[in-house]
């Protein structure tokens, strides 16, 4: 920028560098002055990172649509399958009893979720809303077992399930998952955020414990219940170790086991494997998209307060 | 509180009981039960309704066996595998923090109207770009009917290859456009969702995807990597090997020196009071990250010639006639191999021609012992895994044959070796599959498999077999060894398998719960702190070091504890699904699984493994609390 | 309608921590009684014991003629307004107000009628179908009030119901509360930490303290009596703003009577009529207390004590800070051993600072306390 002669410094007067017009936009503070550049950079960064998370899934879809397993190699060289074959998804169902696996997973995960939400919400009510002798000690026990690694429980639980005659049975997969110290803890934390004056008001209004639980606390803890339900569902849906050691029959296999079995049998047919895994990923994705806002809050609640 | 304590206890119990029963039965009870079990020799093969042997209390014998006794070499191997795989944890945490900071920063247009406008513009620009890409890349250059000269594309004409490439480029452009447009319209939530997706889907399905991504041949990662390596090839081969060593060692020394300097400076700052413990903690963690990266890359540089990037030797040629003759001699020499020779003989037939007489003898003795039941565990596992691989291939070939006649017909058609045939005919497809699936270690190197199959099916459709095998994995290494710089055979090569699992782990977890926790932590930092720091003249980096990091210390503390606990227990599913424990990827949980739920069902010993893991976790957590919580106190 | 009598009530938590001790308050039918005190004094605990939300460890509480120690809150015929209003967030205003009635199996028609009547009285008719989240603080407060009113209980309990409102709203709501009480004439127990609320609302106020390690009732009386005749040093210091000036010193006898003397320049002669009460304390430690408004500038029209002893009530202070309040000024000054005496004087623009000034004390409003935080008032 050239300065007009009139504002040239008078001879002898010190030159003031502050004269230069400032670059900052009129209504941004100096802190935010650089934000346009940084906004762009951050956005570009996010897009690039986002692509690294999206592209593998795109590739998965392309493979799942490839007609012939031998063309997968072609696909990696050209990027596209020579021919699109949507029939792969149907083929998966023909090869193995994929529908049964799907049903098993959804059935087990749903029941485990429902039962867990019921037992945990009731227990959380007892821990958060009722004062009873020994409460804190019992809760400490719950908390303590959270520290015990899951693998410690695997072996004895296997023996117990075996002893109860629930081996190789739906009950063996559902019942142990119907109780959760973590879920109790999570819901208790959630219920503690509900002001105790609400149940006091209800109690003055004439409500007993069951009514306070069902009509006041449960509706208010709904976000927490949803969070637990998502966690429980996802956990049981993806659960691998437990069904692996507890099932024997093909018709009891859950999706993860079915997928593994499918992979070891049809491993070379990558197109079918990808079609199968793609279908297996659908329920969590749908669940997540629908309930995203609860899930994010829940993770933060479960951890930050813990 | 309303009511007498007794009455309240009663009501509370009504609410608590359903959960408490389950808790006692499946959580607290098992914990106590498990301690007891770990001091016994309980194994289901020995102690079951059909045997009257009683469970014995063996004191600390299980622990002794694992830590110093006959199981100790396995235990410590697997322990170190677990620890090495945990390298991904600090990397992942740093990544989570980075992503969280990016998600928390302002990005894209400031005004909502600008966002929508931006999204519209992105869609329009993207559409134009798609068109442009198609025009540039579309197959107008080549004449129809000209065969592609590229390896692997031999069957297609050049025009089709070009068309496919062009449409792929258009697809990727479209995806990119979508990401940009949705990112603009929806904002950070969209990116948060994308980053979280892998965590949400983590499970067998996701591991199968990565298994496919990692395929040396036909996997996306190497498809992207190989062209770069091909370009690098000239440079690397032109460089004297010595230079790589020197370079690598120099980087290692540099890294260590930096570590020393940085630590010295940190301690000085700490003792002079210039910086608090939080700053020191930040310095330690950041320095360690940097140094691990430096030393790691230096190490890789010195190892370049050794880790399979450079081929060392060509595999020995395969002689079918020799294999055939070995096969024929087998039953006479080793009657013990007898009826289930169909699997092992195929392998022996493959391996035999490549071994000298002495080695062959050892091998055959091993195989024989295998069936006497006198073979060491490791050898047996190796055999089993090889065998299962062959079996699963056979299953694929036979799957559609259901009835006895059909099966016989298929065997006829495939001209199965008469030696193998009786064994195969006995089994029906389902039980064969079942048998294969029950085996944990299913994967087999494809190269021996190919050879073995050719023995079994001498005149099978060579093209089909080849396609199958080409697809399967390591074959490429065997075929192309010696002709250039090759991308790693990720999950198959023990030198790379852990790296592969770590990379996948970081990708899976970086945008997960930890990122969300950091996001929550970031939004809890009072903006006034940044404003004050800005007024005090702190640069962006200084603001991070003096405001963000100390404020996030409690979050980091929590994340570190939870991640180490998770990391020590993790790795089982990945290894089982992706490598079947091959390539030195067995972790402690996997070991526990092997002990407790396969073969001998040694529940007592497995419980001891679990409790050793608990002790380690407990010690680490205690250590974190003792030293880590100092970081969070200021 | 009922009277409430609280007799020797104490609350002990977990068999160890004594939160409230020996509370005795008789509340007449239709009376408005305010429990006031600093935090931790057990005022809320006491109220919650009346409500039945806390078990009563010792003593008895009667509502009407019924002993309610073991009666469930819902059967005590009370209604309570909570500090945070405790509105059920997932119910509409109508549901919130009618919940208690519905639980009592009242016909729906009657519930509606009562809810609408209460809503009309409180001016919240338009908001009946909204949820609490959509209401402002003041509106929520009304809903909470409405919920209590529809029940037509014999006792209203308020637990700091105004403390979540902003200052201006608090004052107007306070007036409305008082009007409401005048109309309904329901016995009311009201807990607050705000002395202004206590003074303005209560027919009588109960001042409680936590200072002795346990919540205790210090004084029960009408607001004016408590203000004018505080029973002890705690009550004196707790009520009034700015608080009463209290200076420790000694009681000394000199030729013309009994003097309070802090031995650093603050000397005040006690009126002779208290001589008999005070004579035994001569030579011992005492504390003098006088409210900021009990002082005026020494000069013309200066108040002289009835016994007419010159300078008996003249104190010398050094003003440090002047805070103009409009009609009056608050002058913070040093006086004898006291570093911060506040005097509320008639406004004057040129009030001098940092030099000695004489003030006169209205001896009718001077108190003398026995030593200690809870020293009893020796002359009133």
Explain how this protein is built.
The complex is a heterotrimer of chains A (306), B (634) and C (380). In chain A, 70% of the residues lie in helices and 0% in strands. Chain A has helices at residues 35-64, 71-78, 88-95, 98-128, 135-147, 150-163, 170-174, 181-192, 196-205, 209-220, 222-238, 241-246, 255-266, 270-304. Chain B has 5 domains: 5-64, no CATH class; 65-107 and 209-214 and 490-634, MetI-like (MetI-like fold, Orthogonal Bundle); 109-186; 217-312, no CATH class; 320-480, no CATH class. Chain C is an alpha+beta fold and 380 residues long. Chain C folds into 2 domains: 4-238, 3-Layer(aba) Sandwich (Rossmann fold), CATH 3.40.50.300; 245-369, Nucleic acid-binding proteins (OB fold (Dihydrolipoamide Acetyltransferase, E2P), Beta Barrel), CATH 2.40.50.140. Helices cover 24% and strands 33% of the residues of chain C. Chain C has helices at residues 43-51, 93-103, 108-122, 137-150, 167-184, 195-201, 223-228, 233-238, 275-278; strands at 4-13, 17-27, 32-36, 58-63, 66-67, 78-81, 155-159, 187-192, 204-209, 216-221, 245-254, 257-261, 267-269, 285-290, 295-297, 314-324, 328-335, 338-346, 357-361, 366-369. In chain C, a hairpin with a 2-residue loop joins β4 and β5 (66-67). In chain C, α2 (93-103) crosses α3, α2 (93-103) packs parallel to α4 (137-150) and α3 (108-122) crosses α4 (137-150). Chain C starts with a strand and ends in an 11-residue tail after the last strand. The relative contact order of chain C is 0.12. The chains are: A mainly alpha (306), B mainly alpha (634), C alpha+beta (380).
């Amino acid at each position: 920028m050239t300065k007009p002669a009139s504002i040239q410094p008078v001879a002898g007067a010190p030159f003031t560098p502050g004269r230069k017009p400032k670059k900052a936009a009129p209504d941004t503070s100096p802190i935010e002055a650089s934000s346009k550049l940084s906004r762009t950079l951050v956005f570009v960064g996010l897009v690039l990172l986002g692509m690294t998370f999206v592209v593998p899934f795109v590739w998965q879809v392309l493979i799942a649509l490839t007609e012939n397993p031998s063309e997968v190699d072609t696909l990696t060289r050209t990027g596209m399958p020579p021919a699109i074959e949507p029939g792969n998804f149907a083929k998966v169902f023909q090869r193995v009893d994929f529908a049964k696996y799907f049903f098993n997973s959804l059935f087990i995960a749903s029941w485990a979720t429902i039962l867990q939400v019921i037992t945990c919400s009731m227990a959380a009510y007892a821990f958060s809303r009722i004062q009873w002798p020994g409460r804190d000690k019992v809760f400490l026990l719950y908390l303590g077992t959270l520290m015990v690694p899951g693998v410690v429980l695997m072996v004895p639980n296997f023996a117990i399930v075996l002893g109860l005659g629930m081996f190789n049975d739906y009950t063996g997969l559902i019942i142990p998952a119907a109780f959760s110290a973590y879920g109790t803890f999570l819901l208790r934390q959630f219920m503690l955020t509900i002001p105790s004056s609400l149940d006091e008001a209800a109690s003055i209004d004439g409500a007993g414990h069951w009514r306070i639980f069902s009509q006041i606390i449960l509706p208010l803890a709904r976000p927490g219940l949803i969070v637990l339900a998502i966690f429980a569902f996802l956990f049981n849906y993806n659960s691998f170790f437990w069904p692996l050691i507890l099932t024997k029959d093909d018709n009891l296999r859950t999706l993860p086991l079915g997928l593994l079995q499918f992979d070891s049998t049809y491993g070379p047919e990558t197109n079918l494997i990808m079609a199968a895994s793609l279908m297996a990923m659908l329920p969590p994705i749908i669940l997540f998209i629908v309930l995203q806002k609860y899930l994010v809050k829940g993770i933060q609640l479960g951890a930050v307060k813990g | 509180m309303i009511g007498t304590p007794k009455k309240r206890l009663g009501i509370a119990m009504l609410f608590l009981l359903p959960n408490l029963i389950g808790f006692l039965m499946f959580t607290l009870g098992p914990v106590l039960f498990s301690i007891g079990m770990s001091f016994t020799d309980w194994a289901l093969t020995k102690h079951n309704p059909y045997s009257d042997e009683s469970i014995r209390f063996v004191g600390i014998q299980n622990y002794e066996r694992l830590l110093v006794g006959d199981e100790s070499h396995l235990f410590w191997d697997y322990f170190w595998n677990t620890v090495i795989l945990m390298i991904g944890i600090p990397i992942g945490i740093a990544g989570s923090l980075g992503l969280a900071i990016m998600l928390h920063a302002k990005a894209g247009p400031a005004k909502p109207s600008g966002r929508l406008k931006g999204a519209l513009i992105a869609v329009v620009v993207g559409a134009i770009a798609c068109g442009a890409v198609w025009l540039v890349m579309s197959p107008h250059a080549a004449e129809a009917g000209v065969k592609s000269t590229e390896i692997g594309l031999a069957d297609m004409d050049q025009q089709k290859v070009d068309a496919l490439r062009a449409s792929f480029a258009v697809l990727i452009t479209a995806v990119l456009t979508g990401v940009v447009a949705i990112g603009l319209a929806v904002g950070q939530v969209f990116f948060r969702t994308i980053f979280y997706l892998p965590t949400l889907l983590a499970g067998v399905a996701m591991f199968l995807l990565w298994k496919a991504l990692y395929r040396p041949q036909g996997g996306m990662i190497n498809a992207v990597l190989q062209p770069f390596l091909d370009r690098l090839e000239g440079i690397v081969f032109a460089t004297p090997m010595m230079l790589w060593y020197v370079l690598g060692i120099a980087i290692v020394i540099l890294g260590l020196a930096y570590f020393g300097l940085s630590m010295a400076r940190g301690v000085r700052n700490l003792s002079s009071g210039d910086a608090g413990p939080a700053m020191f903690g930040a310095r330690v963690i950041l320095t360690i990250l940097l140094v691990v990266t430096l030393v790691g890359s230096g190490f890789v540089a010195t190892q370049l010639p050794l880790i399979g990037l450079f081929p060392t030797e060509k595999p020995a040629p395969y002689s079918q006639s020799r294999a055939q003759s070995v096969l024929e001699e087998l039953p006479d020499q080793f009657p013990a191999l007898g009826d289930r020779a169909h699997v092992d003989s195929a392998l022996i037939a493959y391996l035999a021609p490549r071994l000298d007489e002495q080695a062959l003898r050892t091998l055959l003795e091993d195989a024989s012992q295998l069936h006497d039941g006198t073979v060491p565990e490791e050898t047996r596992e190796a055999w089993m895994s090889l065998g299962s691989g062959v079996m699963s291939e056979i299953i694929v070939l036979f799957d559609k044959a259901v009835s006895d006649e059909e099966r016989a017909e298929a065997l006829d058609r495939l001209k199965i070796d008469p030696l193998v045939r009786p064994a195969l005919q006995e089994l029906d497809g389902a039980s064969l599959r079942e048998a294969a699936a029950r085996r944990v270690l299913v994967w087999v190197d494809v190269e021996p498999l190919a050879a073995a199959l050719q023995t079994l099916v001498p005149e099978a459709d060579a093209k089909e077999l080849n396609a199958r095998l080409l697809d399967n994995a390591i074959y490429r290494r065997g075929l192309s060894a010696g002709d250039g710089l090759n991308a790693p055979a990720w999950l198959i090569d023990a030198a790379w398998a852990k790296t592969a699992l770590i990379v996948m782990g970081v990708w899976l977890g970086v945008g997960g719960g930890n990122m969300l926790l950091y996001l929550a932590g970031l939004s809890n930092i009072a903006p006034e702190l940044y404003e004050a720091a800005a007024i005090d003249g702190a640069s962006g980096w200084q603001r991070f070091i003096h405001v963000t990091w100390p404020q996030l210390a409690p979050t980091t503390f929590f994340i570190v504890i939870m991640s180490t606990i998770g990391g020590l227990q993790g790795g089982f599913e990945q290894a089982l699904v992706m490598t079947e424990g091959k390539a030195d990827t067995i972790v402690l949980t996997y070991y526990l699984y092997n002990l407790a739920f396969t073969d001998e069902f040694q529940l007592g010993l497995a419980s001891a493994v679990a409790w050793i893991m608990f002790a380690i976790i407990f010690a680490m957590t205690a250590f974190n609390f003792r030293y880590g919580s100092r970081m969070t106190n200021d | 309608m009922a009277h409430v009598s609280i007799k020797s009530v104490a609350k002990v938590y977990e068999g160890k921590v004594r939160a409230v001790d020996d509370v005795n308050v008789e509340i007449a039918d239709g009376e408005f009684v305010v429990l006031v005190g600093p935090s931790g004094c057990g005022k809320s605990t006491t109220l919650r014991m009346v409500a039945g939300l806390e078990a009563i460890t010792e003593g008895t509480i009667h509502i009407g003629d019924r002993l309610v120690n073991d009666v469930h809150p819902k059967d005590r015929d009370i209604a309570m307004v909570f500090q945070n209003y405790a509105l059920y967030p997932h119910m509409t205003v109508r549901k919130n107000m009618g919940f208690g009635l519905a639980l009592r199996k009242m016909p729906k028609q009657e519930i509606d009628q009562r809810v609408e009547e209460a809503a009309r009285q409180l001016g919240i008719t338009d908001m009946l179908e909204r949820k609490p989240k959509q209401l402002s603080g003041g509106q929520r407060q009304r809903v909470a009030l409405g919920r209590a009113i529809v029940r037509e209980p014999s006792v209203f309990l308020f637990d700091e119901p105004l403390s979540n409102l902003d200052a201006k709203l608090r004052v107007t709501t306070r007036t409305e509360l008082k009007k409401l009480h005048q109309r309904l004439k329901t016995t009311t127990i009201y807990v607050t930490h705000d002395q202004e609320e206590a003074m303005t609302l209560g027919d009588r106020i109960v001042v409680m303290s936590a200072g002795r390690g346990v919540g205790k009732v210090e004084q029960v009386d009408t607001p004016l009596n408590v203000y004018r005749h505080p029973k002890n040093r705690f009550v004196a210091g707790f009520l009034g703003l700015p608080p009463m000036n209290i200076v420790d010193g000694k009681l000394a006898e000199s030729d013309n009577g009994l003097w309070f003397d802090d031995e650093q320049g603050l000397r005040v002669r006690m009126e002779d009529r208290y001589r008999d009460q005070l004579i035994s304390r001569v030579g011992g430690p005492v504390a003098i207390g006088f409210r900021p408004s009990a002082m005026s500038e020494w000069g013309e029209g200066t108040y002289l004590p009835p016994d007419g002893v010159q300078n008996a009530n003249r104190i010398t202070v050094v003003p440090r800070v002047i805070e103009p309040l409009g009609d009056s000024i608050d002058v913070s000054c040093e006086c004898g051993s006291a570093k911060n005496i506040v005097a509320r004087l008639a406004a004057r623009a040129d009030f001098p600072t940092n030099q000695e000034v004489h003030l006169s004390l209205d001896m009718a409003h001077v108190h003398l306390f026995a030593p200690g935080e809870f020293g009893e008032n020796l002359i009133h």
